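Sample 1 of the test manifest.
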Amino acid sequence: MNFLEFMQQMVNGFSLGSMYALIAIGYTMVYGVLRLINFAHGDIMMVGAFLGYFGMAVLDLPFVAAVVLSVVGSALLGMLTDKVAYRPLREAPKISLLITAIGISFFLENIFNVIFGGTSKPFPVPAYMEEIVNIGGLTLPASALMVPAVTLVLLGAILWVLYKTKYGMAIRALAFDVNTVNLMGIDANKIIMIVFGMGSALAAIGGIFWAVNYPSVEPMMGVLIGLKAFAAAVVGGIGSVGGAVIGGFIIGFTEVVVVAFLPEYGGYKDAFAFVLLILVLLFKPTGILGINFDKSRF
Amino acid sequence: MYLILEAIYHDFKKFPKKYANFKVNFSNITDCNKNQKGEYMRKLATLATSVALLASVSVAKEIKVGAVMPMSGPLAAYGQVTYEGIEFAHKLQPTLKNGDTIKLVLVDNKGDKVETATATTRLISSDKVTAILGALTSTNTAQTIAIADKKKIPVIASVATNDKLTMKRTFANRVCFMDSFQGEVVANYALKDLGLKTAVVIVDQAQVYSLGLAKAFQKAFKKGGGKIVKKIKITSGDKDFKAVVSQIKSANPDFMFLPLYHPEASMIARQSKQIGLNKPMFSGDGVANQVFIDLGGKAVEGYMFTDFFDYSAPPTQKSKDFIAAYAKDTGKKELASFTALGADTYFLLVDAMNRCADPSDSICVNEQIKATKGFEGVSGIINMDKSGNATRSAVIKVIKDGKAVYKTTVNP
């Protein structure tokens, strides 16, 4: 392997890792406030990608408008699932919440299967995203640079919200202790809804990026991607936003490295990613940046 | 008379109770008075008339033929297209030479393995079909064959190309070519006609189809003096192939062989172009559909693949007639190759049934299917062998301006 190919593979890993990171943040934030593994999160990402497809291919909107539609639509959907499915179960055992999340996941997959059909739809990628950039012999599509850049900007924004705003403080307090937060006169339900909205908006952006990089959308696309993003959140330490991003990059790089160095085993890249998950959990059960579960998160 | 007796026999089998009662009454005739006797005679006469009526109906029998096809689910697009061919062929030729009519019984397998098994069992045990047409993909067809083989019901597969499908199965048949032939066609065409000497092969390790086709290609390509510079394994469902195409770029082969289905093949084509990898690409019949072109967009321009048939170069008189009838009926000039093969499974079956004294005798039908030689099908001339495989030609197509265009025909 020459230097150029190595660099090319690194860029590939960076771009793939960013997408996992964007989705993993949603898992980690919801877990932080509700202690719920929101299995419907991968499907929210799928809905985000489909709304983008719908906006561009059906409503004929420009790319940016379609992204806005997708982000707003997914955020609303995330908040709606919280209100309809999770809020009535706040006092119920955690396992009921988990099963409900799986139910929502199946519901979303099947309703989109009914509306759009099971065959993959070509995602109309805007030309400027597919433009080929040449940097010192490396040939890359513009999207490969745009994805990590946007991810880092969004990560900065999320951290700013969490640490510099009143709402962020409420979210962090909520992660610490729900009952006390309620006593302090903060509307916990409202804050949880905001968390769902933020997480789902990020998932929608992740979904759009996914569709731009791999231009086909289908109702089942969220299953495996969601699972890997969840693995990323766990590797990084579930409950920690920075950890989710680190975990995303680790999973992304693992996949690329397996294919690049062991092409004969390339088909097992998912297995390698999950073996890595097991290894991390064996040596550090709370994940890389994970903190003691009884203490605060974020 | 024979027919009447046969009908009575059949009727007797169907309603043993009714006859049992009748017999009891009949035995009493001797000690009955005349009036009663006359009544019995009248009853007997009515029975004879009804039997005669029954017999006249059973002169032209109805033979049931089952079809297992994915009419819904992820493979629905192909299943519907293939069944369209079967249905249209049935419309053109609904009766046999001896006047028997054929009834098609369609069961949707939703593209699923388990559903396929259920559908096949249902067709055999409750619908009592004589033969089964189906079930599209190699994986699902293997299920149908496994069940039908035990019950001695012949199966004719339309597009299942995996080599192992017909092995050790007496009742398995197909009208398409096998992957070993398809692999050879690609290898020889690349080496001799295009002068491409080195290749990278990308295999989908989760698909029997892909593994078989890749193996056949490698064997033929090496034999012809070509060199496989790299073999990369992927799994269906993958979307990210950037690491794969980056490697191929530095391996710098003359061309890429992708024995994959359309979702993966289209993504690889797109991602190759994104990093400036512009080598010729070749696939088998797994990408022979419009969805592939839609998903691939501009990236699949110049992409080549093998197929069974092309409507723009009809190989037989029957294809010309079929295309004309199809155009007249549906208004569509472009006959999909899967539709042509679907029609051929039906025509081949009818042809074999016509050569049997009793067309509902599935063992005879199976023997006759395998004895078919020089059959003029819609998709070309088909010769069947003892193992139920077809020897037939292949066509090579290339994608130009978003359309699959006929390039050449390769004969075995």
